[in-house]
Amino acid sequence: MFFGISHLVLPCSDLEKATHLWRDVIGFAAARSGEGYVDIDTGSALLRLLQVPKVESQTSLRLQVADVAQAYQSLLAAGSTSRYAPMRTPELEEMACVSDADGHAIVLWRALTEDEWGFVPELPKQGEWTADAEDLLQRLLAHVPAFFRMLARRKTTRIIEQLAQRRAALSPASGSSKAISPQSAKVTRFRLVEPLRAEGINPDEYRAEFDYE
Q1: Which residues contact residue 95 at a Cβ distance below 8 angstroms, ignoring those fewer than 6 apart?
Q2: Is 156 in contact with 149 (CB distance < 8 Å)?
Q3: Mean pLDDT across the stretch 146-161?
Q4: Model confidence over 102-141: pLDDT tens digits?
Q5: Is residue 19 within 8 Å of residue 30, measured between CB atoms?
Q6: How far apart are CA 45 and CA 152, in angstroms?
Q7: Tell me, what DSSP letter sits at residue 191?
Q8: Would 96 disulfide with which of 82, 86, 104, 183, CB 3.0-4.6 Å?
Q9: What is this structure's pTM?
Q10: Where are the alpha helices (DSSP H) in 3-106?
Q11: Domains, the chain, with CATH or none
Q12: Left, alpha or beta for 168 (phi > 0: left; psi -120 to 50: alpha)?
């Protein structure tokens, strides 16, 4: 029955000025126009700039941007007024906010990368790990690009625990509840060869684990 949101309507007292902001400053394309309106293609939904005699109420729109500070300064230079300058939030985002000529809030935001969090996330481990094994894996993960690190953390932790369980099954005398040690944590991929060597580990000695899928 419902197919999704096709338009968001933004009332404006000066259609030409609003179009300039959204098309020329922010950089979205004008999709179509008619008597008293311009549709702006935001990439996800059309923003209909609607000419009205007087804006009775303001709304708030969130724009995801690559550089919050740069986008913030661009909007200020185009005549917008600041609501708050770029800041980091407890939700691990960077945000800023301006008001356009009609008082509508334009929130600029981006998700912080893991390198910007200020803390190292815990490993999603199920078994018992020794402190030095966990520390080694965290140091190795720091070499993975932040964009891929969360996925690498989950997959690598899972593989290490699978290998530890397999070794325990093959060597019952070692005890299946033995904590995972650095010996178990020498699982990596091509980009971590040099970091492994920097840790004094020779990947060639652990070829089976290195190639483990």
Answers
A1: 68, 84, 86, 87, 88, 89, 107, 108, 109
A2: no
A3: 87
A4: 999 999 999 999 888 888 889 998 888 988 888 988 888 8
A5: yes
A6: 33
A7: G
A8: 86
A9: 0.71
A10: 15-19, 68-77
A11: 7-112 (3.10.180.10), 131-210 (no CATH)
A12: alpha
